[in-house]
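ingest -> validate -> predict -> emit
validate: passed (alphabet ok, no gaps, 312 aa)
predict: started
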Amino acid sequence: MRRYKVRVISTLRRYAICLIWKGRLMKRLTIGTRASKLAMIQTRQVIERLQRHWPNLQITIEQIHTVGDQMKDAPLAKIGGDGVFVTEIERALHEKRIDLAVHSLKDLPTTQPESVRLIIPGPREDVRDVFVSNGNLRPVLAEPFAGEHTKEIYSQQELRIGTGSLRRMAQIRAHFPGAQLLPIRGNVDTRLRKLEAHEYDAIMLAAAGLYRLDMVERLAGRVVYLPIDIVMPAPGQGALAIEMRDEPEMLELLSPFNDAVTQATTSAERMFMRRLGAGCFLPVAAYGEVVGETLMLRGSVISLDGQHQVLA
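emit:
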């Protein structure tokens, strides 16, 4: 009898949640995100999936300006590093001004508050980094990754390469020791405008952002995709994260959107970073993938000058 009662209560609870989110008792949800074009596109992708599952759900977007967005000219490490793109959004979530938050997973600190949970929707976008070049520099940027016999010729090129990431700086120095590394901040459009104004010869970006912004065709012939086994990505790169308060009803509603493979691989990457005590202050890279029934994790720590690398 006791087992029967538990089963009935569980069924009634699920039905009540369905009533709430089908719009009979509650039909409004506020999602917080950054105000950038990329963040808005990512959030709308999440909204489309939610509304396909819960068609009567009304969702509004709350644009939140983070410290990282406001201080566009300062290096990330100088303005706090970890959390500069999420702290204000998490505060809004804690204060219940928003119900959910959508982030690029790589922007989230590896240690989360106990009061929040993460849903990792799939599929994960292309995890690779890319060079976007000016003019006819694409062959120069691509050759060091084509074979050792050409590396010495091209690696001495005094290219002006823009990036704001310590990891990317170290990786660039490893392959282009003669390059001049210049800081660059701002959204993808801003960075491309600076590139096209010839402030840089090339900039280094995440491929995922170009795909989500539908820029790949526009930049055809100017993009060099960097092999993962040579230029390993940041932990969580290419994945999205839905952050929510740790409430059973929210978890039950959102758990269908969690991608088990993406969550497993990115959790391993983020744990690797957390165990090293790394963040924006240490050049750390990691990439996990599921092969058969095995999760394979590769990790890398690189010296700032790019001359030394420890692989795991």
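The longest strand covers residues 294-302.
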